[in-house]
Specification:
GH3; 22 helices; alpha+beta; 3 domains; eight-stranded antiparallel β-sheet
Length: 585
């Protein structure tokens, strides 16, 4: 289909989406039927006694709700080259690696053509709604995308990060062309072996084509902020390259140098213009529209753990709109952002009912308490039964369960979402947090969202001194008695001890969970510890993950570093410049 289309028919895509979401319940039923018919011959499903039945009731009665840990033995057999059809009706030839920032190590997840098609459907849907509000013409996109190397598993399968598997798929480039969102950088830069060199060349390509750039994007907001922080450091070198028409010696890979040589010609006028534009900025405010005057919007995932970077991104963006990209994971996609006009903090995702079969576990506080008291062994028996896509209620929070075309059946994604409304009969979800990322010492339960809000509140104190929290993480230190929270901050510049002590107290006071406050008052949880890191520490964390084979496009700073993630914990602990303990309680 894509080969015949030169430009995506936006209204047709929206019309198909409207029709489908008006009948979400039946579309879900048909989607489940299709998944089970295509994969009914898989060993996993054969052993569960479905016997060809494809209705939701039989499916829920026969197929258990599972975690990645439950499926690991099956996925490992696929990775090792099992000859039988283990999870799917057709052999899996590609494996995706999750970023590994949540658990400290990447997970293996099956990837197939059907998953690629759902990816493109999500892209097309959100683009259609986005383009209706912010139309792009046939320009270019400055995309900070990076592809890590694909390797071969023991069984001969291709293995790469989820983003790498998408970027390397032949359909991806065709889709970008159809959506008039072609990357301004050549493939050699995207697939370059060193992300620092690729980033420099992305910036250089963007400046060469500055008049044609209509959007700036990356998978995550972090990558966009990281790119423009880098530009602050290297802009004069970029100007020199443009002036002379010769690429800096810092780019060492022949394929990248050769590709850039075709684009780079001496252009002193452009170099002077960029120099004037940047020199005229006040503290880098409005950098993006100043350099790229025709940019319509900035696009990337900006919700969840990415919200921390919004303040800095808005600083760079000036008055250019920020639009959050779609909701998905290495395991598959959930929903598209069909309301590009809303503030990024209010972004919701409309679930596409034909890209998977979705269920939702209601999250009730009393159930959480019972689970906490009785231990993880009872978590499935204690929880309420999952509800279907159209049975969720506005204002309630749920954990997402996915059944995909790529061999995951009733799979707990581990994400907590809140239902904000409905688009026709499909829910619009707000991402809240990862369920398993929790700071807890005693009876306290603080989520990633609670941590982020505490950091935002305390960061206001250093904002008064014109400084900012570049990045942050946390850890529960149980080596002390009692255990206590440790918050790691990397700050942009010097802040007085007096202010940082108050920041530490503010962090401690900002965790308002009743279990935390009561435990702090009786010293069942020790004073919160703020550890201020040396500049560049989170760059070392990024380098660590890239060294493990992660793609920069997929990188998320781990917000809660557990004891199993000891390498990252070691990097953080080895780079502490100052330490403060709270006196708030």
């Amino acid at each position: 289909m894509l080969e015949k289309m030169e430009i995506l028919h936006v209204e047709k895509v929206i019309e198909e989406f409207e029709t489908m979401t008006k009948d979400a319940e039946n579309v879900q039923r048909e989607t489940l039927k299709k998944i089970l018919e295509e994969n009914g011959s898989a060993e996993y499903l054969q052993n569960l006694g479905l016997n060809g039945r494809t209705d939701p009731q039989s499916f829920k009665a026969c197929v258990p709700v599972v975690t990645h840990q439950d499926l690991e033995p099956y996925i490992q057999r696929i990775v090792d080259g099992a000859s039988s059809l283990v999870l799917t009706g057709k052999p899996i030839t590609t494996i995706s690696l999750s970023s590994g920032t949540t658990q400290g190590r990447p997970k293996f997840v099956p990837f197939n053509d059907e998953l690629m098609e759902t990816t493109l459907q999500i892209f097309r849907t959100s683009y259609a709604f986005r383009n209706r509000e912010f139309p792009v013409t046939n320009g270019k996109a400055l995309q900070f995308i990076y592809s890590s190397k694909q390797s071969r598993t023991k069984g001969g399968l291709f293995a790469g990060t989820a983003t790498t598997n998408v970027f390397r798929n032949s359909q991806f480039k065709k889709a970008m062309k159809v959506m008039q969102s072609q990357c301004c950088s050549p493939d050699e830069v995207i697939f370059g072996p060193d992300f620092r060199q690729s980033l420099y060349c992305h910036l250089l390509c963007g400046l060469i084509f500055r008049e044609e750039i209509q959007l700036v994007s990356s998978t995550f907001a972090h990558s966009i902020v990281h790119a423009f922080r880098t530009l602050e450091q290297v802009w004069e070198e970029l100007c020199f390259d443009i002036r002379e028409g010769i690429l800096t010696s810092r780019i060492t890979f022949p394929s990248v140098r050769s590709a850039m040589a075709k684009l780079l010609k001496p252009n002193p006028e452009l170099a002077d213009l960029i120099h004037r534009k940047i020199s005229g900025l006040s503290n880098w405010y409005g950098l993006i529209p100043e350099l790229f005057p025709n940019v319509k919007y900035i696009y990337g995932i900006m919700t969840g753990s990415m919200e921390h970077y919004l303040k800095k991104l808005r600083h760079y963006a000036g008055d250019v709109p920020l639009i959050s990209a779609d909701y998905g994971s290495s395991e598959g996609w959930i929903g598209a952002n069909i309301n590009p006009n809303v503030p990024t903090e209010s972004t919701t995702y409309a679930v596409l009912p034909n890209i998977g079969y979705f269920e939702f576990i209601p999250l009730k506080e009393n159930v959480e308490e019972q689970v906490h008291d009785r231990g993880d062994a009872n978590i499935l028996s204690m929880e309420p039964k999952p509800v279907s896509l159209t049975e969720v209620k506005i204002g309630e929070e749920y954990e997402v369960i996915v059944t995909s075309f790529a061999g995951l059946y009733r799979y707990r994604l581990g994400d907590v979402v809140k239902v904000m409304g409905f688009h026709n009969s499909t829910p619009e979800l707000k991402f809240i947090c990862r369920r398993n990322l929790m700071l807890t010492v005693n009876i306290d339960k603080n989520t990633e969202k609670d941590l982020q809000q505490a950091v935002e509140e305390a960061a206001k104190l250093i904002a008064e001194e014109k400084q900012e929290v570049i990045d942050f993480s946390s850890h529960v230190d149980m080596w002390t008695d009692p255990g206590h929270y440790v918050i790691f901050w990397e700050i942009s510049g010097e802040v007085s001890d007096e202010v940082l002590k108050e920041c530490c107290n503010c962090l401690d006071r900002s965790f308002v969970d009743a279990g935390y406050v009561s435990s702090r008052k009786v010293n069942a949880i020790g004073p919160l510890e703020l550890r201020v890191l040396r500049r560049g520490t989170f760059q070392k964390v990024l380098d660590h993950y890239v060294g493990l084979g992660a793609a920069v496009s997929q990188f998320k700073t781990p917000r809660c570093v557990g004891p199993t993630n000891y390498k990252v914990l070691q990097i953080l602990c080895d780079n502490v410049a100052k330490t403060y303990f709270s006196t708030a309680f």
